[in-house]
Amino acid sequence: MPNINKKIKKNRKNNQVIGVFDSGVGGLSVLRELQHLLPRENFVFLADQKYVPYGEKTKKELIKLAYKITDYFVNYHNIKMMVVACNTSTCNSIGELRKKYSFLIVGTVPAIKLAAENSKSATVAIISTPSTSKSQVLKKLIKDNCQNINVLNISCKNLENVVEKGKLNNAEVKRLLLKYLTEVKDSNTDQLVLGCTHYVFLKKTIENFLGPRIRVIDGNKGIAKQTKSLLLAHLMKNNQRAKGKTLYFSTGNSVKFSKVASKLLKIKVRAKKVAI
Ligand code: DGL
Asked: For a pocket test of ligand 1, which of 20, 21, 22 has the largest count of ligand atoms closer than 8 A to its C-beta?
């Protein structure tokens, strides 16, 4: 067993933190569901903003970044579990992460299954970053869940970047929605999957753009539920009386991160910069 796994096993306790990461602020949309469902857990959130966006990186680059963040979580925060709050990282590196580390890892994949189950028109759409859109994980999810369903797999550039700037409804957002969602609006689609955690913050704007005929879906609540089930099944849930705490870190500009995160979460967030 590699040393890192020995270290993880030795001191595992229920009150250890859960590591959550994304390329940037998008993962906060997953974190808020986790905090809501697991109010006694302690979290450490890392936004890898030095390398944002992840959406146009290669699989090899994404694996390297995921290893680096996970090692940081293990060595500096002694995590008991990790949630990859990023579709791009999950779709490109979850298999490699699970091979290397022995603790529980929850990933974020587009909620294609839910969309397929709910579709009456037999047409669904998914928007995601270029690296998610062309990943084998997404292709397999579509193949396994959408046998008699038409799927519009739309690769979007720059849509995560507007959210990084804290812009959820400006002219640039509208221009991008027009570019990527017009074909969805004009099709028979009745379910749109948000395949990037940044897009969850654009949900209202997207719903307004598409109108009531198309349901907009994300899997964030499901991720929180899965995390809770795993904690219970492995007897690892934190039963401390006090409310859990969250520490926030960014590998980029932590002042900017704090400002945008505070706006998105509607709470005061004070992040620290970390070089990893
Ligand atoms: N939030 C990420 C996702 O869910 C990635 C966004 C990016 O950095 O491109 O895919």
From this structure: 22
Q: Distance of CA 256 to CAs 48, 69, 249, 269, Å?
A: 13, 20, 12, 11
Considering only CA atoms, which of 128, 54, 65, 129 is closest in space to residue 97?
65
Residue 176 is encoded by which pair of tokens?
Answer: 């991008």
Residue list for the binding site? 22-23, 54-55, 87-88, 197-198
pLDDT digit string (tens) for 100-156?
Answer: 999 999 999 999 999 999 999 999 999 999 999 999 999 999 999 999 999 999 999
Active site residue 196: yes
* Ligand 1 pocket, residues with Cβ under 6 angstroms: 22-24, 26, 52-55, 86-88, 129, 132, 160, 196-198
Question: Mean pLDDT over residues 2-14, rounded?
Answer: 57
Domains of the chain, earliest start first: 4-108+221-273 (3.40.50.1860), 112-218 (3.40.50.1860)
